[in-house]
Specification:
Elements lengths: L4 H36 L7 E2 L5 H4 L7 H14 L16 H7 L3 E2 L2 H8 L2 E2 L5 H5 L6 H13 L16 H7 L3 E2 L1
Parallel strand pairs: 1-2, 3-4
GO molecular function: DNA binding
Pfam family, one: HHH_3
GO biological process, one term: DNA repair
Amino acid sequence: MKFSTSEKRLMLLLFVGVLLLSGAIVELKTRSSEQAIVETRKTVEFPIDVNTASEKDLMALPGIGETKARLIVEYREKNGPFGSLADLERVPGIGKKTVEMLAPYVNLTVADVAAAQRKINVNTASLEELMSLPGIGEVKASEIIKMRQQTRFSSPEDLLKVPGIGPKTLEKIKDFITF
C-alpha cells in the first residue's frame, strides 16, 4: 500500500502531535507530584519540645530519623516526660554527642516536668491516677487497689507483692510515688 505525499505529511504531523501531547502529560504529572510533596511538608518551629513533639516533628531534628523519633516517643510514653536533655541519652541509639547536637533545637515543657515530679500516693490514688504511672495499666492499677484494701503500703518494696509488679516496674515508678 502506497501513501500519497499529503497522507505521509498528515501521518507525520499526527505522530509529532502525539509525541508532544505525551510529553506534556508526563511534564504535568511530574509537576503535580512534586507540588504534592512540597505541599505535604510541614514547617517546624524550633525549639521543639521533646516532651510533647510528635514523631514527625522530631524527625525534623538533625540526626533524628524515623526510627530514633519513634524510640523517643515510645520511651517518653513508657517512662514519662524527660526531666532534662541528658535524659535523652537513655533512649536507645541516642548518645551524648547526639544530645549535644540537638541542644540548640530542643527544649522541655516545665509544666510536663513538674507534673512528672508530682508524686502519686499509692494508698489513696484513683485507678486513673495509678494508670498515669509509667508501666502501670488498668490491670496493675486494679491489683494495687485490691492489695491496698488488705494492707497499707509503706515502702516501694511493698509493691513487689502486687501481682504483675516486678523489680523493673518498681524501678520505673519509684520516683513518682509516695505513701
